[in-house]
Amino acid sequence: MSKSILVTGGTKGIGRAIVERFAKEGFDIYTCARNRRDLESLKTHLEENHPGIKVLAMEADLSKKEEVTLFSEAVKAVEIPDVLVNNTGVFLPGSIHNEPEGNFEFMIQTNLFSAYYLTRAFVNEMIHRKSGHIFSMGSIAGLTAYPNGGSYAVTKWAMLGMTKCLREELKPHYVKVTSILPGATLTDSWAGVDLPMERFVRAQDVAESVWGAYNLSPQTVVEEIVIRPQLGDI
Predict the structure, then answer these.
(1) Rounded to whole angstroms, how far apart are CA atoms 92 and 100?
(2) pLDDT tens for residues 10-20?
């Protein structure tokens, strides 16, 4: 029986790399993003390069609770995925004391609330079947405060806290929970920055870390993975 993975924000960056890595292993793919054209392109690519897998690629803005619900219901109509990766996120630079009005609300809805509501949509079924693996895509911004991090850092500290709580809650139910905490990764968030590629983490390396953590024996779980550029934070 085939396995399946749900990855939010799966058309670009780390999300795309995770989708590609698990599709390579024959996993059915469930993903969403806000850009319909990107979703159609991803679906076509996956079906052409990995024949036999199922792909559901749905347009959804997960900063809106009602769209989280619509997406989760579309997936649940097919199955409960074996792996859930809460990857959707947005970064708007700024300081807490003077960032534009609305930054905090938009980032916490996108980065944190989406993961909270999506996890709640699937976790009871995972508990019932006594299996599943939930990954949260955090950031070193959730470990270390830095200037201009503003509300983004607040959301990532909160994501780490939520993930730690989930880990404790789901221990006795054999549902694994892992927090991924990448440093500067070469994605669109860093577009235009005048730094060499070698200064960044590769999105594919983050995906390999997720794949490796998933593949441990049932009695073992990786709780946190911190991934930084070899030369340190940017």
Answers:
(1) 10
(2) 999 999 999 99
Kindly write down the DSSP assignment for every residue of 169-195, as one continuous string.
HHGGGT-EEEEEEE-SBSSGGGTT--S
Residues 6+ positions from 77 with CB-CB distance below 8 Å? none
Torsion over CA: 180, 208, 176, 56 (sign): positive
Domain 4-227 indexed as CATH 1.10.10.10 = no
Name the β-bridge partners of 6. 30, 84
pLDDT digits (tens, 9 = 90+) for 91-117: 888 899 999 999 999 999 999 999 999
- Is-above-0.85 flag for pTM? yes
Domain boundaries, the chain: 4-227
Task: Answer whether 110's CB lies under 8 Å from 86's CB.
Answer: no
Residue type, 74: A
**Chain centroid offset of residue 13 CA:** 10
Q: Is 13 exposed, middle or buried (0-12, 13-18, 19+ CB in 10 A)?
A: buried
Is the confidence at residue 9, as pLDDT, over 90?
A: yes
What own/partner pairs with CB < 8 Å and gap ≥ 24 does 188-192 have? 188/12, 188/13, 189/13, 189/91
DSSP class of 141: G
Read off the pLDDT band of 134 (50, 70, 90). very high
C-alpha span between 219 and 232 (Å, rounded): 33
Cα(130)–Cα(126) distance, rounded to whole angstroms? 6
CA distance 44 to 166: 35
